[in-house]
Amino acid sequence: MARVLVGVKRVIDYAVKVRVKPDKTGVVTEGVKHSMNPFDEIAVEEAIRLKEKKIASEIIAVSCGPPQAQEVLRTALAMGVDKAIHVDVAGPEYETLQPLHVSKILAKIAQNEKVDIVIVGKQAIDDDCNQTAQMTAGILGWAQATFCSKIEKGDQELTVTREVDGGLETVKCKLPTVISADLRLNEPRYATLPNIMKAKKKPLQKITPKDLGVDTSPRVQILSVEDPPTRQAGTIVPDVDTLISRLKESGHIQ
């Protein structure tokens, strides 16, 4: 049976209105509710289902971030993950942590833990990068199946249905492989109170990027973070002729 590594990220909760800092260096995170990235919840759920189907033997969750990242790891453990690894990255180092750094960390842990499948959410809702799965597969030299909405196990391979612009694409990929979970892959379960209590006794290892030999020096510099421009209010016109006349006046059509 396969061993599965799942990447989870602590992000500002999807229901929170994000506010830019007055100095435009980033967004306000202090005192703001955080939770597990929704796409990563789907990844965790799929890993648990693979174990329930006797396809996976063990699930390991990994999160890179400050001490608070352990909160999402405990959530993953309560959902059914077997053990967790917290890669401690805090302060300015975390502010400039990029998908490339995370990919190198995941790749190193995947090799150390001898896993067969890496599952991550297709993107994080804070930076929307959608890069980690692809780069992790590239670093490892493994097969990859991104934007996955269905997984079926074959003999030493996975048949994956991918969501693409034109519809659905079905691919077969040999193990080991990297998968990114799309929205329609599954519906994540809620952690029950007994499982939340059990999660407190499950192993949670703490390491640093340095322990893995990964350099997290920033490769980008954030110049400014700004709110998007406010949309102007629309107007209602009585008929098509008036609409065309208004568009001509504004220069939108010639």
**Termini gap:** 65 Å
Number of strands: 11
What is the general shape? globular
- Global mean pLDDT: 91
Biggest β-sheet, characterized?
9 strands, mixed
Structural class label: alpha/beta
The helicity comes to 25-40%
Q: Any idea what the radius of gyration is?
A: 21 Å
Q: Count of helical segments?
A: 7
According to CATH, the fold-level topology is Rossmann fold
In CATH terms, what is the architecture? Answer: 3-Layer(aba) Sandwich
**Name given to the CATH homologous superfamily:** HUPs
Spell the H/E element sequence.
EEEHEHEHHEHEEEEHEH
Instruction: List low-confidence stretches.
Output: none
Beta-strand content = 25-35%
Number of domains: 1
Strand numbers in spatial order across the main sheet:
9-8-7-10-6-1-4-5-11
Indicate the CATH class: Alpha Beta
List keywords for this structure.
28% helix; Rossmann fold; two-stranded antiparallel sheet; 11 strands; 254 residues; 9-stranded mixed beta sheet; alpha/beta; single chain; 27% strand; 7 helices; globular
Question: What's the short version?
Answer:
The protein contains seven helices and eleven strands.
Folded structure, characterized:
With 254 residues, the chain is an alpha/beta fold. The protein has one domain: HUPs (Rossmann fold, 3-Layer(aba) Sandwich). 28% of the residues lie in helices and 27% in strands. The chain is built from seven helices and eleven strands. It is globular, with a radius of gyration of 21 Å. The model has no long low-confidence stretch (mean pLDDT 91).
